[in-house]
């Protein structure tokens, strides 16, 4: 019996050796072909899928200022039946950006009355953590005291505090109380009980955890920012995306309404609120607690160049296609000029002074600006020309990013590509949401592009395994490995492609509208998808110079389902090879390295693979598809690596 098993194992091993393909690769480290942009791999943020409110912006209260179309959406009256007129939504005309507030009339002081806020699909609460409750209030008739409670899904209190208003009567004031949570809860709610007799007005009711990014009060969710910082992105593109355009111009993103004091920022409906009929989100709004100042600050925090995108006088052409007449475009152009002053201007300028008053007297050193998002047609070119002239005249060093529309081919793309190149725009922003097969078949897309014309920004890319989105399962290994192959073509053509970012960035598992997405979260946890792991390996192994990697004298770009690129990192004195095996069988890779001088005798081999092409990461198992690293031996200027089926590899070799 034992002999039969041994024979079977020997036969299986022999068959495996016979099935294994052997390929020889030549790495020409002595023949650099292009410089790699330091901004090559970045991130793109848009407030979709509860990406900002309910996501990276750490506010736990939904509809904190009662400005939703339904003023009490997210709130529920609790306790005994309230007499008519106990809760009133009122307006103050002098505050046009944030006019509504809630008046509490405690007429008798006898009833147990309260309000409950449901949060964003609940509130993620952590045991032992401090929570800071704050509110703007005005005492009309003093005498009302507030009791604050966090409750779990059973109604059990897991944190509480008391709030005794003070200050002058009929004067608005902000006050805060802090308390600690006694247990962890994924979907907690907040109760506010009103004790005593009197009348009090409330606005900007807020709850933040203490563990925000860099412990900033009213800041960002630290675990989500950390995932971005770990990628070491070269840039961050914001605030979108279709958010920039709006369904109509009235709901476009206007950066000036997102800066200054939080309580003065004007909330608007999120355009993804009703965009997808199969996943409606009527409670999806933009409070702009994450505004343009915070975007610039985030970019600075994670070492990324800021890349803001501004409306060009066009609403989303898939929705209303509303246009600003050319003779009324000055306001939009001035917004662009003023934004540069806000980012870079001296503190003596109007907008530089505002930046300084928000806590950042030093400039943000803005170097590039996008005009329009996924806009197309002659009407876009007409408006872009006006923006370009004004920007070039006033700020000639600011590079301009222009849209090539929604698709990477077709009549619209061809028209824009020709016109934008004739205009000599700095960057053409190409987008591709396509099947994994498209990415595999387009790895040579940029091999024949003009090396001296406008540079390419691959601003939104993502492999879509299916036509209909069904959440996290869309972020499978099939899509990620196809993207890894496509990115070899971007890296190989780094003299043409200078920036690239996956899209969209974030998605809440209970509040998404679009899939796939790079990072998925719930109220307590966040994880990177296989797609995240792919781009992170590119971004953290960027290099400084492209070098050829050939097989049989040809580029490794799809023949035999192999894809490869290589760079030198002169700062770290390393050769970095990236290679994808998109075969169902292993490939024995034999690498010959042409380099001046000697190589170290060992290096590192990091690889991503999965049990099957449908493999995904999840909240419960966030590392199912994650990098594994092992040492490798280098003999002189040769090394051998086994490329397992359906795998992506990063090999690093030290130069002496």
Span from first to last CA? 54 Å
CATH architecture assignment of the largest domain: Alpha-Beta Barrel
Number of helices: 10
Low-confidence stretches: 1-18
**Outline, from the CA principal axes?**
globular
User: What class, by secondary structure content?
Assistant: alpha+beta
User: Compute the gyration radius: what is it?
Assistant: 28 Å
Q: Walk across the major sheet and give the strand order.
A: 3-15-18-19-20-21-22-23
How many domains would you count in the coordinates? 3
CATH C-level label of the largest domain:
Alpha Beta
CATH superfamily of the largest domain: Glycosidases
| Number of beta strands | 36
Strand content: 25-35%
Q: What is the overall pLDDT average?
A: 95
Quaternary structure type: single chain
Q: What is the name of the CATH topology of the largest domain? A: TIM Barrel
Strand count, sense and barrel status of the largest sheet are: 8 strands, parallel
Helix content: 10-25%
Structure report:
- The protein has 656 residues and is α+β, with helices and mostly antiparallel strands.
- 19% of the residues lie in helices and 33% in strands.
- Strands 3-15-18-19-20-21-22-23 form an eight-stranded parallel β-sheet.
- α9 links the parallel β22 and β23.
- The radius of gyration is 28 Å and the shape is globular.
- Pfam families: Alpha-L-AF_C (PF06964), ASD1_dom (PF22848).
- It catalyses: Hydrolysis of terminal non-reducing alpha-L-arabinofuranoside residues in alpha-L-arabinosides.
- Its EC number is 3.2.1.55.
């Amino acid at each position: 019996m034992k002999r039969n098993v041994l024979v079977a194992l020997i036969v299986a091993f022999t068959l495996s050796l016979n099935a294994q393909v052997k390929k020889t690769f030549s790495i020409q480290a002595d023949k650099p072909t292009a410089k790699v942009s330091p901004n090559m791999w970045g991130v793109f943020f848009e407030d979709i899928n509860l990406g900002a409110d309910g996501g990276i912006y750490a506010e736990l209260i939904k509809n904190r200022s009662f400005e939703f179309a339904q003023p009490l959406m997210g709130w529920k009256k609790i306790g005994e039946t309230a007499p008519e007129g106990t809760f009133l939504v009122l307006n103050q005309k002098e505050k046009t950006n944030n006019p509504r507030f809630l008046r509490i009339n405690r007429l008798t002081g006898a009833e147990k009355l309260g309000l409950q806020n449901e949060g964003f699909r609940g509130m993620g609460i952590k045991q032992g953590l401090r929570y800071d409750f704050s509110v703007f209030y005005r005492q009309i008739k003093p005498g009302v005291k507030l009791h604050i409670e966090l409750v779990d899904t059973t109604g059990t209190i897991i944190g509480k505090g008391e709030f005794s208003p003070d200050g002058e009567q009929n004067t608005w004031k902000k006050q805060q109380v802090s308390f600690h949570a006694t247990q962890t809860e994924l979907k907690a709610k907040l109760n506010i009980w009103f004790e005593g007799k009197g009348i009090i007005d409330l606005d900007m009711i807020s709850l933040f955890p203490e563990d925000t990014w860099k412990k900033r009060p009213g800041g960002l969710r630290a675990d989500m920012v950390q995932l971005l910082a770990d990628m070491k992105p070269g840039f961050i593109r914001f605030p979108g995306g279709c958010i920039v355009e709006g369904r109509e111009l009235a709901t476009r993103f206007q950066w000036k309404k997102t800066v200054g004091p939080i309580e003065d920022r004007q909330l608007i409906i999120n355009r993804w609120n009703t965009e997808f009929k199969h996943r409606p989100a009527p409670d999806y709004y933009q409070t702009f607690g994450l505004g343009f100042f915070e975007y610039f600050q985030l970019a600075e925090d994670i070492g990324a160049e800021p890349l803001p995108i501004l409306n060009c006088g066009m609403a989303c052409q898939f929705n209303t296609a509303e246009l600003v007449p050319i003779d009324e475009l000055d306001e939009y152009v001035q917004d662009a000029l003023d934004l540069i002053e806000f980012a870079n201007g001296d503190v003596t300028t109007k907008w530089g002074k505002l930046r300084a008053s928000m806590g950042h007297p030093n400039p943000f050193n803005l170097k590039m600006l996008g005009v329009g998002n996924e806009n197309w047609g002659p009407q876009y070119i007409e408006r872009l020309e006006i923006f370009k002239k004004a920007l070039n005249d006033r700020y000639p060093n600011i590079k301009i990013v222009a849209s090539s529309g929604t698709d990477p081919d077709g009549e619209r793309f061809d028209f824009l590509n020709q016109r934008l190149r004739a205009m000599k725009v700095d960057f053409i922003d190409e987008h591709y949401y396509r099947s994994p097969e498209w990415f595999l078949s387009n790895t040579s897309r940029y091999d024949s592009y003009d090396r001296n014309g406008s540079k390419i920004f691959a601003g939104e890319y993502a492999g879509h395994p299916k036509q209909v989105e069904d959440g996290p399962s869309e972020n499978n290994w099939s899509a990620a490995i196809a993207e890894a192959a496509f990115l070899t073509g971007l890296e190989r053509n780094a003299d043409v492609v200078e920036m690239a970012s996956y899209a969209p960035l974030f998605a809440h598992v209970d509040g998404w509208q679009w899939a796939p997405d790079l990072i998925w979260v719930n109220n307590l946890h966040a994880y990177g998808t296989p797609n995240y792991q792919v781009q992170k390996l590119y971004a953290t192994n960027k290099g400084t110079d492209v070098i050829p990697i050939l097989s049989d004298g040809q580029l490794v770009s799809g023949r035999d389902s192999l894809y490869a690129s290589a760079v030198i990192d002169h700062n770290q004195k390393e050769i970095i090879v990236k290679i994808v095996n998109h075969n169902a069988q292993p490939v024995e890779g034999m690498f010959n390295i042409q380099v001046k001088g000697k190589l170290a005798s060992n290096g590192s081999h990091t690889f991503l693979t999965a049990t099957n092409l449908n493999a995904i990461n999840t909240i419960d198992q966030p590392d199912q598809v994650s990098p594994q690293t092992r040492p490798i031996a280098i003999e002189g200027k040769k090394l051998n690596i086994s490329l397992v089926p359906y795998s992506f590899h990063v090999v690093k070799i030290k130069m002496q």
